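Methods — Computational structure assignment.
A single polypeptide chain was analysed. Its primary sequence is given first, followed by the predicted tertiary structure written as structure tokens.
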Amino acid sequence: MQIKDKRAIVIGAASNLGLAFSRELLRNGASTVVMIDNRDKEGMTAREKLNFEFGKNRAIFLHCDVTRNTDFNVTFKDAINILGGLDILINNASMINEADFTKTIEVNVTALIRSTLLGIQQMRRDLDGNGGVVLNVSSIAGLWALPQLPVYSTTKHAVVNFSRSFAQPYHYQRTGVRIIVLCPSLTEANLEDFRKNLSDPQVLFKYQPQRVELIAHGLVYAIRCAQNGSIWISEQGKPVYEVQLSDSLPQKTEQTVEQTC
């Protein structure tokens, strides 16, 4: 999909990675980007910056707490009315809080699922839509175990599996909506959030934080070129690359369970 003249919604767009995504979409010709976030001050500032850079009313900010289901439904509908349709949906809202695991799940998983379903409902071809792209932002932590951040890691695994499940032909052949997953590694923007939630922040030293602008470049590539259901990693400031996950269970060994216990 080419981004030029496309209409986009970015969830979690007031700052950092979401703002970088919004800017990159506009830089590549998106007609309008609706930015949804619960941080008013940051959201209004981001809107002003982008409209100054790209032109009046190219960026629209809507306040919403994505964990409030009714409010989210209304806000999403308002965004569609403003855009006159939808072509690209970026689900980027995320938090790291091992102590408040309920809120972390609500933001990282429940809200993302709700947003994906609302976006597909608008774009699906079997309901007179034109198809489109949903890009769900997971994390490197969604591809392997992260013992110091088990809740966060679990939510990001859920994003990967939900996205891959909804990308199966059973759905795609009817909807024409591509579902893509982007898994960034540690960024300069979320370094402090990780540090606050780690019992041993020293583990961060083995990861090289990357700039959000570089991840945003990868997002554009994925929207343009990635196949439905694909998973893309962005790490160490290098170009994004695709990883393949198995769709089948590992083969049983010849040994019985009794023999291995």
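Note: Strands lie at 7-11, 32-37, 59-63, 88-91, 132-137, 177-184, 231-234, 241-243.
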